[in-house]
Amino acid sequence: MNERVLHHDAASANDATHTHTPAGSTVRLTTAQALVRYLAAQRVAREDGNGTEPLFGGVFAIFGHGNVAGIGEALYQHRDALPTLRAHNEQAMAHSAIAYAKAHFRRRMMAVTTSIGPGATNLLTAAALAHVNRLPVLLLPGDIFVSREPDPVLQQVEDFNDGGVSANDAFKPVSRYFDRIVHPAQLLSALPRALRVLTDAAMCGPVTLALPQDVQAQAWDFPAAFFAPRVVRFPAPAPRIDEIDAACTRLRHAKRPLIVAGGGVLYSHAAEALHRFASTHGIPVAETQAGKSSLAWNDPLNAGALGVTGSPAANALAHDADCVLAIGTRLQDFTTGSNTLFTQADVIAINANAFDGLKHRAMVVEADARLALEALAEPLQGWHAERTWTARAHKLAAGWRDTVTTLTHAPQRDAVLPYEGDVIGAVQRSSARSAMDDIVVCAAGTLPAELHKLWRAGKPGAYHVEYGYSCMGYEIAGGLGVKLARPERDVIVIIGDGSYLMMNSEIATSVMLGAKLIIVVLDNRGFGCINRLQQACGGAPFNNLLENCVQGPLGAPRIDFAAHARALGAQAEHAANIAELEAALQRARAADRTYVVSIDTDPARTTDDGGWWWEVAVPEVSSRDTVRDARAKYDAQLAARADPPAADERTDHE
């Protein structure tokens, strides 16, 4: 049967409660004033259960022509109820807004406003990042004149075939909902729709409302009730009985089940439900990048990271599992080893969005993660994974925890540069409190792989790595958003020199806002991760490490990251080794402002333990032997994927 029969308390955003306003009363406002007033009226229940707080934590704004006179004036009027935060880069401030929402598990969010032209298009990368990661952010770029009287205005992109197109149309493929507000009355439908997308578990992602500058300033008589304070709910699908029954049937036949915990576990507040379910049924848990911290790192059933950047424990269990329960994950290629890691397993995908669940030939349970786990509890009473399987999971997980301790506490030799694992260990040892209170932030390069394996996350949200879009430049801006969301926690941004140079301006913003970050810069003199991938595909070292790039007569610069950070208002120093790094981190934790510590690292060394194949296409034709050899290995992997081994032919990875 198709009707949903398992109910829950997630009401529609349109059903939200609000205070009474006399019927028929109106208030005359500009479009921009009405928009800002509506955003300021949205409330959300506090995490601690004590009352409500604003849904929108603020609006990041860089003003220019197209938003300074309209929405800028409106934000000034409401600056006490809806704070306006000034940033230094449009893409970066959108990253900060996205990270703020992620740190709040999508229960609070921010808006971003820009001028037209480059101010608007600078948001596109961030919009794509939010879209891929299913994270809410409200983008409010300025737009051209609807009247077209002054066309073409400064920064206007003209389409030779369509007079209604502006640069903001580029947001359509990277927005979950897009609208261009061409009349004030349009807000009456556009804003509730936007809010629904931003708060809905299945539809969640970036919303773009393009704001033509003349319409921003246009006045209209709005219904006063439209601005009544509202407590917003977060719609999420309840599971259907037929899908729960089908999942139970498949699980009851499983002897070697494995849970894959994705970001949906965190966003649905299902961490406790996951722990109960895994413990009750003896099922090991492996975590994706987005799902890491769903289960405490030292839980006996936490096998660690899964996939290309996975632990040997999790990958061995995934390789031998007969059933994979994928919760809140879209099973992208880094998780599945490009669809080679659990080819023999039946896959059950619990996901609020059926599109994300329909991966890896999965049977879909279209539901909120917490609600689905709770619905599975009663019909699975008495069922348990094969005892030897649970015992094996405990043994592998414990062994991996011991290995992590060894890797992150390795003795240092003066003549050898440290690598990421050494730095991660130093960061976690530097905490006077439990390092579990720290939140680590990262995004791209070698570090996400090492952090996925080695970071010890003790509570939900302690691991904040953007790896859906793997966007260089997210790190510092994202750290700022996390700190604004969680001011009581130490936020540790660990970043490579390549990402630092790509986007670092929000160091100045963090100092200006008093949002202290601890930033650790690993300087390996280039793009070390891609340099290794290039060579793994048979390529010669080329255009990645600075030493292999085209250079002028002065050669590559030796960058003083500490001096640069001090110039942006932070405190900073360079550490010569791991011992100096630990001492510097103690000073950083005690400092009253953002503190940057740089350290030179080895671009070649990585953690050998764990990992899995990842498909990167290698040229079929090349004059170079190394490329032809790499292509032969690639073809062998493709053949193995096309003809996977039978279950009884699998290798025992213990």
Automatic annotation (TrEMBL):
This protein's GO CC annotations: acetolactate synthase complex
Residue runs in coiled coils: none
GO BP: inositol catabolic process; isoleucine biosynthetic process; L-valine biosynthetic process
Biased composition (Polar residues): 14-23
Residue ranges occupied by any Thiamine pyrophosphate enzyme N-terminal TPP-binding domain in the UniProt entry: 68-155
Enzyme class (EC, first level): hydrolase
Biased composition (Basic and acidic residues): 1-10
Start and end residues of each Thiamine pyrophosphate enzyme central domain: 244-376
PROSITE patterns xref list: TPP_ENZYMES
Keywords in alphabetical order: Hydrolase, Thiamine pyrophosphate
Pfam family membership, one: TPP_enzyme_N
Region (Disordered): 1-23
Database matches in InterPro entries: DHS-like_NAD/FAD-binding_dom, Myo_inos_IolD, THDP-binding, Thiamin_PyroP_enz_cen_dom, Thiamin_PyroP_enz_TPP-bd_dom, TPP-bd_CS, TPP_enz, TPP_enzyme_TPP-bd
Superkingdom per UniProt: Bacteria
EC number of this enzyme: 3.7.1.22
Family under the similarity heading: Belongs to the TPP enzyme family.
Designated name of the protein: 3D-(3,5/4)-trihydroxycyclohexane-1,2-dione acylhydrolase (Decyclizing)
Organism: Paraburkholderia ginsengisoli
Gene that specifies this protein: iolD
